[in-house]
Amino acid sequence: RPRSHTVTTTSSSFTANLSASSSTLAYDREFLRTLPGLLMVTEIVLGLLVWTLIAGTEYFLYPAFGWVMFVAVFYWVLTVFFLIIYMTMTYTRIPQVPWTTVGLCFNGSAFILYLIAAIVDAASVTKELDSHNYNSWAASSFFAFVVTSCYAGNTYFSFISWRSRTLQ
């Protein structure tokens, strides 16, 4: 007995929209003129300073400085990632992600962990520990507290943005 097969093909508009929308790359020049944008650039520059000051020493001999390095490098990479997302307006292309909640969680966790790392960094700096690296560690401690205050500011702005989204 011969069997008949029916094949139905459909075209998805999602792939057409995805390829059409991804061909142009948006760039938000105004983001760097906002206070959250300026804070983010400051976090990147001073965060880089924190971990390079520690990386230039024998930090691996002291576990406390290893923790500070982890926090500084981890949040530096993520902050660069988020800056790229905001500068290219990628968040507008992925509306399924709750960006205000993601920003609040990111900045809040960065503030808390950077505060802990800055305190650990400051508490670990002593002349008796290693006088050769004292100045680098002391400077990294100072800049870690400055970066912490930047993340605190961005946490505040993220909270305001998140709260205005949840009230709508």
From TrEMBL:
GO cellular component, one term: membrane
GO molecular function: structural constituent of myelin sheath
Domain MARVEL positions: 31-163
Position of the signal peptide: none
Swiss-Prot/TrEMBL keywords: Membrane, Transmembrane, Transmembrane helix
The name this protein goes by in its record: CKLF8 protein
Major localization listed first in the record, in broad terms: membrane
Membrane topology: Multi-pass membrane protein
InterPro entries: MAL (IPR013295), Marvel (IPR008253), MARVEL-CKLF_proteins (IPR050578)
Location relative to the cell: Membrane
Domain of life: Eukaryota
Chain ranges passing through the membrane: 35-54, 60-85, 97-117, 137-159
GO biological process: myelination
